[in-house]
Amino acid sequence: MSLVERIKSLCDEKKVTFAEVERKTGISNGQIRRWDNSSPKIDNVRKVAEYFDVSTDYLLGRTDKKRYYDLTDKDEKDVDKELERILNNAESNFGFAAFDGETPSETDKEDYEMYVAAMRDAIRLHKRLAKKKFTPKKYR
Predict the structure, then answer these.
(1) Close Cβ partners of 27 (under 8 Å, ≥ 6 residues apart)
(2) Model-level pTM?
(3) What is the mean pLDDT of residues 36-57?
(4) Which of 29, 63, 108, 132 has its CA 20 to 30 A from that of 37?
(5) Of 94 and 125, the one with more pLDDT
């Protein structure tokens, strides 16, 4: 996928036009369409990347991760391991009580699934925020 195609797909997701992106980023009118035939200035690519909150590497096709802090497959496995550890501790005598003094697995199936989903989302959010906060600028 070319640079212009990636920007077009981001525009479609955000429901904006090239002209709006150019106005809001300070790029001259019609410039993005010309990037099919000519090389853009890196400063303009950076402005577009910041507008869409994606990495310049994503725009240039070097990676499929839109943001440097998106979770990788390894991160997702780590989330599952951490969730399993938390659930095992909740079941033990040393774990915490939930749902009116019952352990999570003693509750009905729907409540247990909601509990697991909420814990998974919380761990994923924490991991993304940590990556965003602690990734050195040279690796972004």
Answers:
(1) 21, 44, 47, 48
(2) 0.61
(3) 92
(4) 63
(5) 125
The structure tokens listed for 24 are 């809001």
> Is the Cβ–Cβ distance between 96 and 90 less than 8 Å?
yes
Residue 56: CB atoms within 10 A of its CB come to 15
48-89: pLDDT as tens digits: 999 999 988 899 988 888 887 788 889 999 999 999 988 887
H/E stretch holding 43 reads helix 42-52
CB 90 within 8 A of CB 104: yes
Angle, vertex CA 72, rays to CA 68 and CA 74, nearest 5: 140
